[in-house]
Amino acid sequence: MKVEGQNVLIEANASMNGGDGPQSYCQNSFFQKAGLEAMKEIMQKEIRDKFDVGKPSSNESLTIKIADFGCSTGPNTFHAVQIILEAIQQKLQSETINSQEPEYQVFFNDLVTNDFNTLFASLPPKRQYHAAAVPGSFHNVVLPKSSIHFAYSAFSLNWLSKLPLEIIDKNSPAWNEGMIHYSSKQKDVLGAYAVQFANDFESFLCARKQELVSGGLVSVLVSGVPNGTCFSETSTGKLYEIFGSCFVDMANKGLIHKDKVDSFNLPVYFPSPKEIKAVVEKNGYFNIEKMEIPPNPTYQTGVPDFKKHAVSSRAVYEGILCQHFGSEFVDELFKLFRKKVDETEPAIFLNSGKKNLVVLFVLLKLKPSPH
C-alpha cells in the first residue's frame, strides 16, 4: 500500500522471534511470564466460580476445549494452559459433574508466520491434553462455531491488526513525523491509535462470540495504563522515547532514510480499564465477570530492570523492523538502544515511574443467545 508515494508497512503481521536462541521470544518473555504469575490465583478462582460446561448425561463423554489466541512460541502458553486446566479440573471435581475424567483439547492460535515448529517441539511431554495448531488472525473466526469452552489471550491484544492510515499520511493532522509511537502531546496520533485498538478488540470479541459455547468464558491479560494516564507518561513510555530517538539518530547519520522512519510506527497500544470496559459494553455479547489489576510484577522489587527490557525488545520487534527497514540495520539499532539505556540516569525512569504500566485481568462470559 502507498501513502504519498512512499512504500509503508500497514499490516502488523510480524511474529515474535522464533527458535530458542538468545534473541528468541522463548528466552526473552520474562515480563509476560511475571504477568501471568501475578494473575494466577485470580484467574483460577474466577474459573472455579464461573466455569460451566452444562449437565451432560452420565454416559456422555465430556470433552473440554480451550484455545490460546496469540500463543507465540512458548513456554508461557503451556504454563497458562496448565493454570486453566487445573482450575477447570477443580471445578468439575467439586461439582462431581461426571464420574468419567473429561478429555481436554487445546488449540494454539497465532499468525501463520508464528514458529509453530518450536512451539510443538517444546510441548510438555506429560501434558493432559490433545494439542493442535490453528494458524490465522484472531480478529477473525478461526475455529468452528460453538466449539470452545474457554478462550484465553495474554498480551496479544496490545498488538494492532494494522496501523491507522492517518499516522503515515503527510496530509493528515495525525501524521506522526519523526516518531515511532504515540505520545500524550500528539492528541490526533493518540486518538488514531485508540480508535484502531477499539476496532480490533471489537473484532476479537465478535469472533469469539461465534466460537464459544453458550456461557463460555474469555480470559484476557493485557498491558495497560491506569485510567487518566497516558502511556508516554509512564516509565516504559520513556523507554519507548529512547528507542524512537535511535531511529532518528540513525537517519541523521544516513544509515536509514528519514522517509522510512516517518512511515514506521510500532503497532502496539496500551489501553486503560475504562477503554476495555467501553468496548465490551458497546459490543454487547459478553458480561464482564471480573476486571482487576493484580500487583504489577515488574515493579515489585524497586528499580525496574530496563536494561533487560532493552534486550527483550529485540525478540518482540525484530520481525516487524526487518519487514519495514530490512535486516541489515537491526544489529546497529539495538546496539545503540542498549547503549542509550545504559547511559540514561535511573532517576529519569523513576521520576516517571510513579506512573507505571499495569497488568489488567479481564474475565468475560458469553451472554445466552436470545430465543
Quick tags:
Rossmann fold; 371 residues; alpha/beta; 40% helix; seven-stranded mixed beta sheet; two-stranded antiparallel ribbon; single chain; disordered N terminus; 10 helices
Descriptive account of the structure:
This protein is an alpha/beta fold. The protein has a domain at 21-52 and 62-228 and 267-298 and 355-366: Vaccinia Virus protein VP39 (Rossmann fold). It contains ten helices and nine strands. Helix 2 links the parallel strand 3 (63-69) and strand 4. It starts with a strand and ends in a 5-residue tail after the last strand.
Produce a short descriptive summary.
This protein has 371 residues and is an alpha/beta fold. It has a domain at 21-52 and 62-228 and 267-298 and 355-366: Vaccinia Virus protein VP39 (Rossmann fold, 3-Layer(aba) Sandwich), CATH 3.40.50.150. Helices cover 40% and strands 16% of the residues.
- CATH class type of the domain at 21-52 and 62-228 and 267-298 and 355-366: Alpha Beta
- The whole-angstrom Rg is 21 Å
- Report the CATH superfamily of the domain at 21-52 and 62-228 and 267-298 and 355-366: Vaccinia Virus protein VP39
Order of helices and strands: EEHEHEHEEHEHHHEHHHE
- Averaging pLDDT over every residue, what do you get? 85
- Look up the CATH topology of the domain at 21-52 and 62-228 and 267-298 and 355-366: Rossmann fold
Give the total of beta strands: 9
What shape does the CA trace take?
globular
Query: Number of helix segments?
Result: 10
CATH architecture of the domain at 21-52 and 62-228 and 267-298 and 355-366: 3-Layer(aba) Sandwich
Distance between the termini: 44 Å
Helix content range of the residues, please?
Answer: 25-40%
InterPro entries: MeTrfase_7, MeTrfase_capping, SAM-dependent_MTases_sf
Keywords: Magnesium, Metal-binding, Methyltransferase, Transferase
Organism: Dillenia turbinata
Protein name: SAM dependent carboxyl methyltransferase
